[in-house]
């Protein structure tokens, strides 16, 4: 071979191989980018701020006003479950001007879209690493999210779903990257820190943290010193915040977790919750098809890749089992979206081989069948399972606000003119009052003298819809959260006898007698009109119980000034305080605590 031929041979070889490689690169980019772009479009078309999402905004505004992470100034109550989302919104509200509600909607969509892109890229990398040459990919699991209206809805609901999606995607991307044999011996500490943030995103995501840390250990088999370093880095943020939570709020869990009795078991309701999600969309069809694709990959993979693909699936099973165990949620599909996302991570895209392309085609057919107007039950699934008590929040909120895209706080405020009028009337009155509002339309019924213990408070407002009430009530005035999700006494009440008749998470509606014992001027000894279930004897017993023993300490833990002594008392008593339950009968409560 001549010198000229020797020089030309690589060039000619490159000319034969580069065009297919370039075509494959662009094709794979389109396989990821187009579904992600469509999901962003669908999320934007369904953008809305839910009332539950608006609850975060009250706390964020209190933080920005210098009152701390509280619902009411002067009372330390943790009203939100996602710590990281709450503080991230506070940062965004401090940096960007404008309605924090709209900022929340946009941020949720950006995080969801970015999370899908990151997760797909990780799956692409997994397949590319196992191939000896560039191979085209086909969309698979990502089509499931493209076809599920709940995923569109919660991408902008003002809740932590977008943050959770991005965090899960980051776990997957780091896990795939660090599983590369070429990276053996590297530290892994940044990945451990990212995995450890799960508890701060949502407490139940701690099981996902445990799964990924275990998977990383199985891949690397580090020394005990490095293992200890991983655990220290992963747990540092969560432990530090847990110390803050116990000392500041006096509890070991966010108050909504306490109210929802997150440690209880309601398997029957949990199974119905799962069926209510799966049945309207015939979700078993794509899951079965994709399970076959996952099994093919798993069978052909080596030990390391089996650990990689198995870890998110195990995490999904653990998280789904927990959701089913506690009975699910009242929001249709919300709590099962993260485990579904985890389970589909290894098959978001698949190799475009003849057999796996068939898988992609089957999921595409299912997605088209689900996404079209010919399947309206997919958009309003009210009969997914007999006895299921879930709400399609997007549909519900359209009915409440009268707006398809209620993406600003003012959209909610305009929907409750009676509430705003009642607050204005109470603020203009001659004395501090507790408003009595009708639960349905927040119409003003009456007002009674307010407990003078709430200094500098002119009006105390029952929060039936806590989010919009928080937006309407001035930051220096008081909200009485009626469902126990952010009510110091309500959260600790025992379930009522008919608790199964209520939505999950909304079973601790505060009784009239306890509401009056906390809010009514003590000089008024007879229950006023509008509180038919309260009696004079019950009111006296409830007031006495609140002044005794553990109940007095419970109130003091949230209301006394936060001195070093108070912080230490809250910290050391947090476990017993979290376990405290109050009998609904005030006579029984008086006998127990006094």
TrEMBL record:
Residues 458-585 form the Terminal beta-(1->2)-arabinofuranosyltransferase C-terminal domain. The chain crosses the membrane at residues 26-44, 100-122, 134-152, 158-176, 228-248, 278-298, 307-324, 330-349, 356-374. It comes from the Bacteria. Keywords: Cell projection, Cilium, Flagellum, Membrane, Transmembrane, Transmembrane helix. InterPro entries: AftB_C. This is Flagellar motor control protein ZomB. It comes from Yinghuangia aomiensis. The lineage of its organism: Bacteria, Bacillati, Actinomycetota, Actinomycetes, Kitasatosporales.
